[in-house]
Specification:
By secondary structure, the protein is α/β, with parallel strands linked by helices. The protein is built from 15 helices and 13 strands. Strand 9 (about 210-215), helix 8 and strand 10 form a beta-alpha-beta unit. The model is unreliable at about 365-370 (pLDDT under 50).
Length: about 375
């Protein structure tokens, strides 16, 4: 059997993208292990068709965390038998490279984003320089790779002369996820990180007659809580924290509007194609979305979102109010979401994923986890 290892730095319970990828490959006959980390607030892992391993660290943020986690990951992987290893983003790439060279196994890079161009990296010159150096030293040594959209694939081809397949992160098509009964609340799901426009979204909510529900956590959570207090939004903004995929789906089914906003700081935001963008489509939720290239490309074809030219407070408030007040417009976007989901779904994307791994490792047989 072909043994594959996938590595992330986050809590495995909430990573819908990696759950989908690992599940699809396990179904295809590979023996798959997904490696992440365990936090104090981590919930018990759900049993899945692939193996899961959490590493425990003393440090949970900053340079010491990355150093400790990479050392622990290297030691763990060094002791395992494997046929292939896949580094998900730049923060686990070094141990994957070293172990694959020592073991002479095939290595794959899964670039979910332009890591060095995230706001929290590109806005700190010293941090940016360190990560960029690591990218230049490691990424060209990975012969195989895939990413989430054509624009990012073109960047990697231009910078490192590497061909990247495009495998978008889309939900499974599930018509039962579309519910007719909606509550008029606005939903933000995903990482509560720098560059996600909370500095303008939250004050904009003062002018919008609806609640905002935020499902997620991240490096901007403390600032988000401070902004809620500053603008006296305690009764209007609800923080749900991190939710497992099953719980998140139930909230999606009730939401009226979704939020996909990014500041233009760094190419990672500008060229992004966020997971939540497709989650909203599959739940039939019209969304307020930035008018960036990858989103515009899809919206031009399916008309499922209200695209805004900027993330200023007045722009956000006006767009949200239009979506709330114009029932005919909302219903048109809602119906278009239902139609778009028939084409933009994981059933289509996993065909490309399985073919990608088949091209590297050949045929695999069906393996059932004990």
């Amino acid at each position: 059997m072909t043994r594959l290892y996938f590595t992330v730095t986050n809590d495995l319970s909430y990573d819908q993208r990696m759950i989908r990828i690992c599940h699809s490959l396990a179904e295809a006959g590979y023996r798959v292990t997904l490696v992440g980390r365990k936090l104090k607030k981590s919930i018990p892992l759900t049993k899945r068709k692939f193996e899961q391993k959490r590493l425990v660290c003393f440090f949970n943020k900053g340079k010491l965390f990355y150093l400790e986690y990479n050392i622990r990951l290297f030691v763990y992987l060094l002791c395992k038998k494997m046929d292939g290893i896949c580094a998900i983003d730049l923060d686990t790439i070094l141990p994957c490279l070293l172990v694959s060279k020592i073991k002479n196994t095939k290595r794959i890079y899964d670039a979910h984003e332009l890591f060095c161009e995230m706001k929290e990296v590109v806005s700190r010159p010293g941090i940016y320089k360190a990560w960029k150096w690591l990218e230049r030293k490691t990424v060209p040594r990975f012969s195989y790779g895939y990413t989430v959209n054509e624009t990012i694939a073109q960047v990697f081809h231009k910078d490192y002369a590497r061909h990247y397949e495009v495998i978008r992160n889309m939900p499974l098509l599930n018509p039962a996820a579309i519910h007719a009964n909606r509550e008029k609340f606005i939903l933000y799901q995903g990482a509560v990180n720098e560059g996600r426009s909370f500095e303008t979204l939250l004050p904009a909510m003062r002018k919008v007659p609806a609640r905002l529900v935020i499902c997620g956590d991240g490096n901007f959570m403390e600032q988000t809580k401070a902004l809620i207090l500053k603008y006296k939004l305690e009764d209007k903004v609800i923080l749900k924290g991190m939710l497992p995929p099953e719980a998140l789906v139930s909230i999606n089914q009730k939401a009226y509007i979704g939020i996909t906003l990014f500041e233009k700081n760094g190419d990672s935001n500008y060229y992004s194609l966020a997971n939540r963008f497709f989650d909203y489509i599959h739940a039939g939720i019209p969304q307020l979305c930035v008018d960036y290239p990858e989103y515009r490309k899809i919206n031009d074809e399916y008309d499922i979102a209200f695209l805004v030219p900027n993330v200023q407070e007045e722009t956000i408030a006006a767009a949200l109010n239009e979506l709330i007040q114009d029932d005919e417009y909302w219903n048109r976007l809602h119906q278009n979401c239902i139609k778009a989901a028939q084409h933009l779904n994981w059933q289509q994307e996993e065909i490309k994923l399985k073919q990608f791994y088949k091209n590297i490792f050949g045929e695999s047989f069906t393996y059932h986890q004990p």
